[in-house]
Amino acid sequence: MCNRLLVVEDDKDIAFMLRDYLSKENYEVLIANNGQEGLKLVRENQVSLILLDVMMPVMDGYETLSNIREFSNVPVIMLTAKGQQFDKVIGFKKGCDDYIVKPFDLVELTLRVKAILRRGSINVTSNDLVKVYKDLKINKEDYSVVKSGVDIKLTKKEFDILALLVWNQDRIYSSQTIYEQVWNESYLDNDNSVITHMRNLREKIGDRVKESIYIKTIWGVGYKVEKDI
Prior knowledge:
This is Stage 0 sporulation protein A homolog. 41% of the residues lie in helices and 21% in strands. It is α/β, with parallel strands linked by helices. The strands form three sheets. The chain has a five-stranded parallel β-sheet, sandwiched between helices. The protein has a four-stranded antiparallel β-sheet with strand order 6-7-8-9, covered by helices on one side.
């Protein structure tokens, strides 16, 4: 069964070009011409990855992505004519997985799609109740964390943050995305809950911000756990 991709792009020429090219790469491609149509298709279909334009009428890409992250962790690649660092930071904070600037090379875009889908398939096949990351053994069944044979006592929120990152290695999570997924509430810009819990979590597992062993800080963007090779 081929992967189903969703292209959310208001420029029909670009949307059809992407559909035609990616279809030849054995992907099924759905098209939405604005953010609202895209949200509807994500809710109604099992989508493997979204190519999401930033500048669109009705609902721009950033708002669309925020809405998607309320109910789905589907990988998202942002497409934009803007290349400023500021725009990239916004995208990663909202929860995108990659970012490519127009005009883009179709071969490069396809390679990025394949890389993200390959990473996702690894995560899915290993999505069991227990994971070992470096010297940590994390068990979702009893919410236990063991480091080199020693039990680490975490709160439920600390455990959920660690599990979210370890089960989704190499993916950057902003404070907003972590808060909305772990607390299951809307995020407020002045809320320091994630920072506080992250500091406590790091202290308990013996991690450091500047010399990170487990959780890497991507300054101005968020946090990630690098893939354990």
